[in-house]
Design goal:
single chain, alpha+beta, Aminopeptidase, 7-stranded mixed β-sheet, 28% strand, globular, GNAT_dom, Bact_Acetyltransf, Ribosomal protein S18 acetylase RimI
Length: 199
Amino acid sequence: MDPTPFPRLTGSADVSVRPARPAEAPDIARVQAVAWRTAYRSLLPAEVLDSWDEAAAAATWRAAVEAPPTPGHVVLVALEGSAVVGFTAFGPAELTDGEPPSADGPLSDITTLLVEPRWGRRGHGSRLLAAVVDLARAQGVDRLRTWLPEADGVSAAFFESAGWEPDGWARTLDTGGPPLRELRWHALLHGDDDEGDRS
């Protein structure tokens, strides 16, 4: 019997998605730094992006892979050949202050989903999202959520094309510069017409 707790993640010899390994933490931190500096240059203060500590980020990601806080917390990587070109992390949701318990059953939050820009438009983001859906379903999760900057039209279009939509919640983050307003998006994982059928 296969001892892995994960459903088999599909891919080809050239592109695939699988659980991250501790040694890949520096690659994950690199993808995060490059993606943020490219996509969020107009949203976050320059000093925040330019002073990014990749070594500290790598240590954080290594801990997340080696010792996740719960079995439901998972970090996945997208590969092209042997290169890490994207990643995502998700885990059990924490309710926002004042938010009632979900009527939809267990929730998980995608805390980040990023693809290094030079590897964009090759299906890596869609494969990562499909893998999250498969694993979340296997965990008994009924709804996935994520926060997106309101001004990030590219990410909004990506999630919308996968069947996600805003759920009416918003928050404003202190960035040390102009406030960053985010909207929460969600998708149900049951029914015939959800994003789990897209790749």
